Every structure is written in C-alpha cells, then in structure tokens.
Amino acid sequence: MNKQVRKTVIAGNWKMNKTPSEATALINEMKPLVKDADCDVVLCVPFVDIAAAIEATKGSNIKIGAENVHFKASGAYTGEISADMLKECGVEYVVIGHSERRQYFGETDQTVNLRTLAALNGGLKAIVCVGETLEQRELGYTETLLKYQTKMALTNVTADQLKNVIIAYEPVWAIGTGVTATADQADEGNGFVRAAIAEAYGKDVAETVTVQYGGSMNAKNADELLSKYNVDGGLIGGASLKAEDFSIIVKAASK
Fold first, then answer.
1. What is the domain-level CATH number for residue 33?
2. Band of the pLDDT at 175, cuts 50, 70, 90?
C-alpha cells in the first residue's frame, strides 16, 4: 500500500450468496467491526440485496456496489441491469469482468470495456477484474496478458475517468480454490497492471490508481499481502461473508 498517493479499498464480492434478510443481518454485524476503518469499505452484493443493503448501511462508512452492469442504458436485454438503474438505487461501485463472468457467461475483453465505459458514464465507480489462468501463468504469459486485459478494459477511458476506476488483479487459479498467490506474486501481478496504466497514461497517473489483489485473500494472509507496495486493498470473496474475517482484513488495510 501507499496511502500517501492512492486510496486503499477493501471490497467484498458476495457473489450469489445471501437473501435480503440475510444481507441485513450480516451488514448489521459488520458495521461496528469496521466503523473505524482507515480505508474505503465496499460490499458488492447480488441485485436482489441492493435495497436491503443500502438501507442497512445508512449512516455507516460502508458503501454498496453491484456485481455486474450492462453496457446499454436500456433495451431488450432480459435479465440485465443498467448503470442508471444501479445509480438510482444508491449503488456507488460495480464489479466488472470477474473471471466467473468471463468463464460462465461469455464476458470478453471487449464487453468488459463497454461495461466499464457505461459504468463510468453513468456515475459509478468501476472495479475492473483482470487475471490469468494457471496454464497461462505456466506458459509465461502473465505479464503480457495482464497488460493486455488492463489496456483493453481502459480503452477510451479518459485520465479524468480513471480516477473512478479500481483494477483488481485476480489470478483465476487462486479464486475459490483456497490457493493464494504469494505476497510477491500478488505484488508482481499488481505491478504489471500498474505498468500497463503507466504505458497508457503516464507513470504519475499510474501511481494514483488503486490496484487491488483478489484471489483467496483472507484473515490469515491479509497482513502480508497488504504490506506490498502495489497491493492497495483486496476484492474479497468468501471472507466477505463472515463479519469477523472481513473486519480483520479491513483492520489490516487500515494500518
């Protein structure tokens, strides 16, 4: 982390978990545990939980995000949600391009870019996910792939809009597997992302962009991961569903 030049952000990604009533209960449990955080705290929740989550977080330091957004403002896109819809619900952040969206729902680098632009133009903050598979890592393509995905996601994003973008490096081989990149691997991957931003926008701008690590960050390894220069927070999966574990990660990011 380098809090002198960029924000540290801990964001929970609940995935397809928690009913609205369960969301309210979990948030109420979390609020006193993270109220003194010296970092931004975000919970990205399923669409059906947004209203309950917004209500439960009123008066607290927890911000609410969504887990996806469509790239059109409206139209015949059954099951999709637009940036304007999310904004009016009170959502501030949205996760874009998570590996599970890419793997199961046909997300591509091109649609990630379109969704990113739609989110930014709609007044949302975008948490854009990039990451390599184990096969790609073993073939030595990690740097090439991370730089490509980052630049593709940011195509036509202005330097001013970049202020509302967080990049989350999530090695696909470490998501939901219990396998975590070493702190050095996380720092290296985040560094490749920052280098790509520097190539596109300049080094000074790149130093101001928050780059999270995601991929089985938990209460036990958060301290070590967050001690690295290029790791500006985390996009937290399973651990964000447990109030105590999530609060430990927030405390690690608050040091």
1. 3.20.20.70
2. confident
